User: Fold this.
Amino acid sequence: MREIDEPELQPAKSVEIVDGALDAGVLFLCDHASNALPAHYENLGLAAAQFERHIAYDIGAAHVTRRLAAALGAPALLTRFSRLLIDPNRGADDPTLVMRLSDGAIIPGNSRIGRDEIARRLALYWRPYREETAKLLDAMTGSGRIPALISVHSFTPAWRGAQRPWEVGILWDNDPRLPAPFMTALREAGVAVGDNEPYDGALAGDTLDAHANSRGLANMLIELRQDLIGDRLAAEAWAERLAAHLRPVLAQSDVHMIQHHGSRADARPSGEARRI
Assistant:
C-alpha cells in the first residue's frame, strides 16, 4: 500500500490526470485505480495485506486505463486513493459510499464513521474527482467533438465459490451505442464477454450515471478479470487488444452525438445490483 502525503492541504492530489487530445472523442476513467491511503488513517485498522486485495482497488485497472489512453491519444482520470476510504463510483447518498464490511473484511476505521467524517472525505477525495471529470468533459465538448465516456474496472475470477467465465464484462444502462458493437467485435475475436456481467450497469448516482447519462453521452464500463491483468505487461497487452476493437466503434458518428436514453436504475428498488 502507498501513502498520500498531506491530502488535506492539496485535494487535487486525489486525482491523477493523463493528458490527451480534447477532440479525441473519448475520456477514460478509472474509479478504483489506487490502494493508497493518507498516513493518518493508519490503514483504517486493517492489516497491510488487505490493501493488496480487490476490496481496496481494482487490480490491474490503472495499467489498462493508462495504456488505453495512450493508444487512443485520449485523456484519462484516475483516482489516487483507496475505495475503502470512500468510493468515487457511488452516489453521495449511496449506503455503500463508505464500506464498513467488504468481502468478509470488517473495516474498523469505517465501522463508526459519522456524518462529519463522511463529509470531509467527500470534500477531499470524492468531490475533486467528480469535479475534474465534469470540467474535462466540458472542455472536450467545447472542442467541437462530443466525447464518449468509458470507465475501466476489474473483477475477481471467482465470487462466493463460483468461477466467473468471462474474460471481459461490458456494463451498460440504456444506451447501446458503445456496448453493442464493442461486445460484437470482442466476441468475433474470440473473447469471452459478459453482457452486464458480472454486475448490472444501471446504478443510480455512479460515475457514468452522473456524468454520461445526465449529459446524453455514449458510455460503457469495461470490467476485466483480474487474473488476466495482474501484472503490468499483461494489463497493457489487454489494453492494446481492447483499443484495436474500440477504434472502429468510436469512429461511428452516432457515438459523438448527444442522445438521452434515461436509466434503468430509476425504476429499480434501492439497494439492488450493487457492485463489489
Q: What stands out?
A: The chain has one domain: 3-267. The chain is about 30% helix and 15% strand. The two ends are 20 Å apart (CA to CA).
